[in-house]
Amino acid sequence: xxxxxxxxxxxxxxxxxxxxxxxxxxxxxxxxxxxxxxxxxxxxxxxxxxxxxxxxxxxxxxxxxxxxxxxxxxxxxxxxxxxxxxxxxxxxxxxxxxxxxxxxxxxxxxxxxxxxxxxxxxxxxxxxxxxxxxxxxxxxxxxxxxxxxxxxxxxxxxxxxxxxxxxxxxxxxxxxxxxxxxxxxxxxxxxxxxxxxxxxxxxxxxxxxxxxxxxxxxxxxxxxxxxxxxxxxxxxxxxxxxxxxxxxxxxxxxxxxxxxxxxxxxxxxxxxxxxxxxxxxxxxxxxxxxxxxxxxxxxxxxxxxxxxxxxxxxxxxxxxxxxxxxxxxxxxxxxx
Length: 336
Hints:
By secondary structure, the chain is α/β, with parallel strands linked by helices. The protein folds into 2 domains: about 30-175, Glutaredoxin, CATH 3.40.30; about 215-325. It has helices at about 1-25, 30-50, 60-65, 90-105, 125-130, 155-160, 165-175, 190-205, 215-230, 235-240, 265-290, 295-325, and strands spanning about 55, 75-80, 115-120, 140-145, 245-250, 255. The strands form 2 sheets. Strands 1-3-2-4 form a 4-stranded mixed β-sheet, sandwiched between helices. Strands 5-6 form a two-stranded antiparallel sheet. Helix 4 packs across helix 7 and helix 11 runs antiparallel to helix 12 (about 295-325). The longest helix is centred in the C-terminal third of the chain and has 29 residues, at about 295-325. The N and C termini lie far apart (about 100 Å). The model is unreliable at about 1-10 and about 20-25 (pLDDT under 50). Keywords: Disulfide bond, Endoplasmic reticulum, Magnesium, Membrane, Signal, Transmembrane, Transmembrane helix, Transport. Pathway: Protein modification; protein glycosylation. This is Tumor suppressor candidate 3. It holds the Pfam family OST3_OST6.
């Protein structure tokens, strides 16, 4: 019993030193360091954002400010290839819309340090593309304040397009941050309308003594067909969604003019459909002309064959495009 007391008394100096160290150390030293690091990162991001609405990042900046903790802010990253040698016209178009969105956020009254817009160019951060196994551009990703990005944090550009309004809606779904898009004034439409009105007014003035052409049925029919071709080819969809003109595969350089999904299209695709519809219509007009005219029989036969050829060939082409977009469609004609 005495030996136990002796050992306890002998250990008192050691216990005293341990308690003294515990009491003297500042509480939460690791937490304080973490808070200081987070504050430095936020301050740096705010400083960059005050200079440019979209912060350019290389591999080191991306890993430090986007991937590495601690982080209490969300980051929208556009992975792109804007250098001229990359010949990515879609990247330039998407970058313009992205800049509009970032400026709308930067100069809005709701701007805060909870959301930042950044860009990683392939020529400045190829290691980031490799790290994320990314093989196409442009691509928009959301990196949340907590946790890893999910599938929905990658913007479906092929299906939705890259219009600023669509990007803002996607960001609102992922971050609860509402961004009202403000576009710089564009007077090209107003100028074009003014020129058109002036042209029509001048033409009417010059022909004021003979306005028979206003009653020309062929002219009005051509104008109506132009409107129908534009609407049925998807021009209004392009205006609303803002899809890319075409898609270039960065791996093999192959350019696709027809979108592989029935939920989206390229601008070039709508132009192709417009020309196909016009060719089919021309064929139908020639068939009608061959049937109703009273000219030479041989000439009417040639017109009939040409019209029939136009309808058959271009309708087959149109049907093949339809099959390529609606997978599983069983019917085809001439062209697979």
